[in-house]
Write a structure and sequence with these properties.
Largest sheet: 6 strands, mixed
Strand content: over 45%
Strand order of the largest sheet: 1-2-6-5-4-3
Shape: globular
Number of helices: 3
Distance between the termini: 38 Å
């Protein structure tokens, strides 16, 4: 049995996990579809995995039950970790990753790690596309068109409209800063996107989070020089342009973290490490960074102002409509907890406005 922690308006809550719990792994790929969380691949004590697990997060009970998907149809991908995916029309579309293949499974979509093989087993980087249809529990044949990106791992993917974007990742000793897009309707690669002006340096273990219908937010990662990064960039898919966000602090590096978008295009970043995991394993993080990528609405600004100045305004709260009052009370609790914990070790929540 394991546990799941969820972050509500104020603090973490712990929930019991039951069922066929996945083994402890690194480099797995997670995707949430219609309230169900799917975990594929990763690396555990037995090596690289190609197992798929799921858990329904919309249950009203306090216990969540994991299920290992065994009775699937079709052929699953070869074992791998550090892959990424797109979610589109009830399908999870996986791309790339580092893993193992037998000699008979080698092909154009696999770049062998020169110094890493044993007998008939080879390790290396993938650039194949693997599709899992959630509605039928089927691994589909993925006949793609066009020229795929170079094989890679520890890259990041994002969906905007019907386009699946890929940025960066590592192959051999190179960490790349190229952008590609994949038409998710026609399963067609459209080549590398050529951008103008300044652009991010090459990296791996970063996040690439859609914030609007034309923008994707890039954060952190590990540079080609092994430097943990804390820079943030906006990629405009309409103009194919990068813009660096200058207001972000430079002293909060993150790599191998997770990120998701909030209600007002703010990006919430959790976990990861602040050090190069190849050499140090002491920099794991459990704080939550909230990064504003768009101006907040007038409503949010007002609620924040009331919550931060509740000592002065508390006698006027009863004037608010009930629905708005509930939002204000949640935000008051948030800022109360924030002010108490901001100086605590390992329990910081930072809102970077």
């Amino acid at each position: 049995m394991t546990t799941l922690c969820t972050f509500g308006a104020v603090m973490w809550e712990m929930h019991l996990m039951d069922g066929e719990v996945p083994p402890p792994m690194s480099g797995s790929c997670a995707a949430c579809v219609s309230g169900v969380l799917y975990i594929f691949g990763g690396y555990d004590d037995d090596g690289y995995s190609n197992q798929l697990y799921c858990v329904n997060l919309t249950t009203r009970r306090n216990t969540y039950t994991w299920k290992k998907i065994k009775n699937f149809k079709g052929q699953p991908p070869t074992p791998r970790d550090k892959l990424a995916c797109w979610v589109y029309k009830e399908r999870i579309i996986y791309f790339g990753g580092y893993g193992s293949r037998s000699h008979k499974e080698l092909g154009d979509c696999f770049d062998v790690h020169d110094a890493t093989w044993e007998g008939q087993t080879f390790w290396g980087w993938n650039n194949d596309v693997c599709v899992f249809d959630i509605s039928t529990d089927t691994w589909l044949e993925s006949a793609t068109k066009g020229v795929p990106p170079q094989p890679r791992a520890a890259h990041a993917c994002a969906v905007v409209g019907n386009k699946g974007f890929v940025f960066g990742g590592r192959v051999k000793q190179t960490r790349m800063n190229d952008v590609h897009y994949f038409d998710l309707n026609t399963m067609t690669w459209n080549g590398e996107i050529h951008t103008n002006g300044e652009k991010p340096c090459g990296r791996s273990w970063h996040t690439f989070t859609p914030t609007t219908n034309v923008q994707i937010f890039l954060y952190g990662g590990l540079s080609a020089d092994g430097e943990p990064l804390s820079d943030g960039w906006i990629f405009c898919t309409k103009r194919n342009e990068w813009k660096q966000l200058k207001h972000l602090p430079r002293n909060i590096p993150r790599l191998w973290h997770t990120a998701c978008v909030g209600n007002e295009s703010e990006v919430m970043i959790f976990g990861g490490s602040k050090e190069d995991l190849h050499f140090l394993d002491t920099g794991h993080c459990n704080d939550l960074l909230t990064i504003q990528t768009q101006p907040f609405s007038l409503s949010r600004i007002s609620i924040n102002y009331i919550a931060k100045n509740v000592t002065v305004l508390q006698h006027y709260l009863h004037w608010l409509p009930q629905k708005l009052l509930q939002q204000v009370l949640k935000k008051i609790t948030f800022w109360t907890v924030f002010n108490k914990r901001q100086n605590s070790d390992g329990l910081r929540t930072q809102e970077l406005e």
